[in-house]
Structures are given as C-alpha cells and as structure tokens.
Structure to design on (474 residues):
C-alpha cells in the first residue's frame, strides 16, 4: 500500500515509531504531522522535537490551542491536562527526533518509489536541482525543498511523498559523524551520489580524512543492490570505492570516468557548453552557469539521470532548462553597468577557491572587482590559517577593494596585505550596515561585486541593500 495522510491510524503510527499510546483512540485516523506549533494545521498531530535552539515540548499548549489532534512527546514529558481531559492522542517515545526518522522510513517503504540521495561538501544543492530539472521531464518527482537536508528536513520531505510521485531527489547535509549514516538509513536510497569531499565542517569532524569518512557513511549504509555515483577526479574515490559492494559509476574530466565532459567552451559570462560522454555516446549540453565546478555538478546530475535510463535528449533539455539558485553564483545586473555575483548561500575554502577561479575568468581589463567576504564557519582549529590563505588568494585576483565581516576577518585582511594588497584597499566591517556602506562607497561604474560567506553570516542581507541602493538594470 501507499501511505496517505487521513488513512493512517494512530496505532500504525505508534507501531512505526515504537511509541506508547497513553491517551486517545488507536483507531483514529491522522490527517497529517506538524513540528512547528506556529504553523500548526488543525487535525494534524504535533511532534515535539528538541532542537539546538528550541524545544517543541515547551509549545504543547500552543499546538493544542491551534487545533492539534494530539501530540508525540518524549517519555519524561509532563502532559498538559487539556490533552488528557479531552482524550486527545498522546504517544510517548524515547526520542522524538528518532521517531520522526523512523516514521519517515516506514513511509518511504510504504511508498515504494525510487530515492536518489545526494551529499558532498560542495555542489549538492545545485546537483540536486540539476538532477531534478532532468528527471521532472520524465516523471512526477519530489525534491528536497530549500535546505531540508538534515535529520528534521529530510524526514519531513519523505513524509510529503504521495502515490503520484515516482522519484524522490533528496539532499543530505551534515556537520558531524553519524548524521549521513542515519539519513541514509531513513531514506534507503536506490542511488547515492557524493559530489566531492572538501575542508568543511572541520569543527565537528577534525580533518579532511574525517570528512571523507563521514561522506562515505552513505556507501556503508546503502544496500549492495543500489548504485553509487562518485567523483572519479576527487581523492575521495580511492578511499570510498572499496567500501561499497554495489555498482559504482564515476564522473569527471578524466578519461577513465564512466561519464565525462570534453570540449568545454564559455558562452558569454553566464553560460558554457560542452559534450558529455557516456562510454562512446555523446550528449551536447549547455548550462546557464560558469565555472568548471558547475561542469562537475552537471555531470553528476546527468549521471543520476543516466542511472534511471533517461534519454540523452532529456538530459540535454533538463540541463539547459536549469537556472541558478538564489545565492549560488547568481548574476544580478544593476544600474551603471554594475554586476553582483551573489554566492552568499555558503562558503568553505574549497568552494571559495573554485568561485574565485571563475571570477578571475570573468573580470575584464576595464572592470574593477570589489569583494565582500563573510566568515567561513565550522573550520575548527585551523580557521585562522584558512582565512589568512583566503586573503592571499583574493590579493592574487587583483581586487580593488575587499570588505570582510566576521570573527576571522582580520586574518583575511592580514593575508590579503601579505599577498600585496594595500591596507587602504581593505575594510573590516562589524555589522551588515557597515559592510553595505563600505561596498557602496567603493564601487565604480562597470564593477563586479562578488559576495560570498557562510550561511550563518547572512550576507544575502547585504546583497539586498546593494540592490536597493543602485537599482536593478532594466
């Protein structure tokens, strides 16, 4: 059977999550599930999750007042009287976070379609969207919305799967060991893709080898009947390939890869064309993104489609249809010939290096480059060095002005000055307003403004201010 809200009884949910029903009817049907009391849908059951910044158990009364049909709580919870007095559903479990994952796994097995799981240090969101752009041409799909890629977001995505969905394209993120293993257990993927491994989330993992191991949890948990897709040009391949007993396909630029790209050519500033080769079969494609890293993203998205027997015509069409996501190397043209390249969604040393290489190819002789850099988070004990190196790299770009925001901003500026920039070409901002003002004052007609930083730094706020100041080009 295919799971469907409104046709699932309380006793089925309790069984799926190994819960204990302490109030309410076991035969009552559940209309849906909510994890946020502020967005409670009347008739849904409220699952109280303990997060890093909040505890859903503190909002049980709010959920009830908003029309919740019941609650799922942890076993040490004091149950509000109004729940018991009205005989509303109360299920207790040892961990509500684990219960959410267990329910999603049960749902996924009832659904029975094919699941594609995508992880990696860089490019996983773009790859997910590229794969979805192709696959949506041949089937009704579900894809992870936004950054629903953690132990809460991924299960909630799976719980949206319905009978008409044939494929699910899911993104998996992590910042500590064990998370990818649990996400893989929940999703039970038919195809697992690792885009790459880079120096990211080092605060929780330690070093690159630990990052590779953490990403490799996908392969260690996946069934041997599934297919793994790996970056054959990345150092993770040699370490991870022996850990998987199923079929492996590789992508990259090297001739040894099963799926590779050749004859890469720029088309203006914002696009590129190349040939994808699957064995001896050639697929001419165009993507609306610059940079060699986006060629890799396109190859990995095409590899997913190939595993699902997608025609080369649909692969080319789907990649051509793809448009850049907000905050991921997005081009925004302003008045006076000024262009923002908004790459503010996230940052780590590897993604910054790849982006700067692409920027260097875009900046013409008559253009100036202003860089707004936010801190790269979760880099652990080597954070100062990575930010210093970023500064030296920026200095080598010939940037006219550099504005930095974040705790390690002084390390970036120190590195930039060591690399040849004058201290007068740099500014250490302490607020978004300071950063916006410093950029506005130093931008000239025809300049490129490149903005990048970790998500928590929220440089998208600075981008919006700059857009409002100069105005969008008509």
């Amino acid at each position: 059977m295919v799971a469907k809200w409104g046709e699932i009884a309380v006793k089925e949910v309790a069984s799926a999550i190994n819960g204990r029903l302490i109030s309410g009817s076991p035969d009552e049907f559940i209309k849906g599930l909510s994890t946020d009391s502020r967005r409670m849908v009347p008739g849904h059951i409220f699952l109280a999750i303990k997060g890093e910044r909040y505890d859903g158990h503190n909002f049980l009364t709010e959920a009830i007042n908003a029309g919740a049909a019941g609650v799922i709580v942890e076993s040490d919870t004091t149950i509000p009287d109004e729940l018991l007095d009205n005989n509303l559903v109360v299920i207790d479990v040892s961990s509500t976070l684990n219960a959410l994952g267990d329910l999603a796994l049960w749902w996924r097995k009832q659904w029975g379609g094919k699941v594609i799981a995508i992880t990696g240090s860089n490019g996983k969101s773009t790859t997910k969207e590229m794969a979805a752009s192709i696959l949506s041409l041949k089937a009704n799909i579900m894809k992870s919305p936004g950054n629903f890629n953690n132990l809460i977001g991924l299960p909630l995505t799976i719980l949206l799967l319905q009978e008409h969905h044939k494929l699910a394209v899911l993104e998996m993120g992590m910042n500590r060991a064990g998370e990818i293993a649990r996400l893989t257990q929940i999703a039970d993927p038919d195809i697992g893709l690792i885009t790459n491994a880079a120096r990211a989330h080092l605060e929780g993992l330690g070093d690159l080898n630990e990052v590779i191991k953490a990403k490799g949890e996908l392969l260690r948990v996946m069934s041997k009947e599934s297919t793994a897709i790996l970056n054959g040009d990345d150092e993770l391949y040699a370490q991870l390939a022996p850990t998987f007993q199923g079929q492996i396909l590789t992508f990259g630029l090297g001739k040894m890869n099963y799926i590779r790209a050749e004859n890469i050519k720029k088309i203006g500033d914002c696009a590129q064309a190349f040939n994808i080769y699957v064995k001896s079969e050639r697929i001419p494609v165009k993507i609306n993104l610059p940079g060699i890293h986006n060629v890799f993203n396109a190859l990995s998205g095409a590899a997913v489609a190939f595993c699902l027997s997608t025609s080369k015509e649909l692969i080319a069409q789907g990649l051509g249809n793809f448009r850049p996501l907000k905050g991921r190397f997005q081009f925004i043209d302003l008045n006076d010939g000024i262009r923002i390249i908004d790459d503010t969604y996230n940052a780590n040393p590897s993604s910054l290096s790849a982006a700067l290489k692409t920027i260097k190819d875009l900046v013409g002789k008559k253009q100036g480059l202003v860089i707004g850099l936010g801190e790269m988070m979760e880099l652990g004990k080597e954070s100062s060095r990575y930010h210093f190196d970023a500064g030296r790299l920026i200095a080598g770009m010939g940037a006219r002005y550099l504005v930095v925001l974040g705790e390690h901003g002084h390390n970036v500026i120190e590195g930039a000055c060591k690399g040849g920039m004058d201290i007068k070409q740099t500014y250490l901002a302490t607020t978004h307003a300071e950063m916006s003002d410093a950029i506005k004052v130093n931008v000239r007609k025809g300049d490129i403004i490149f903005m990048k930083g970790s998500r928590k730094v929220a440089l998208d706020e600075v981008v919006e201010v700059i857009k409002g100041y100069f105005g969008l080009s008509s």
Notes: The radius of gyration is 24 Å.
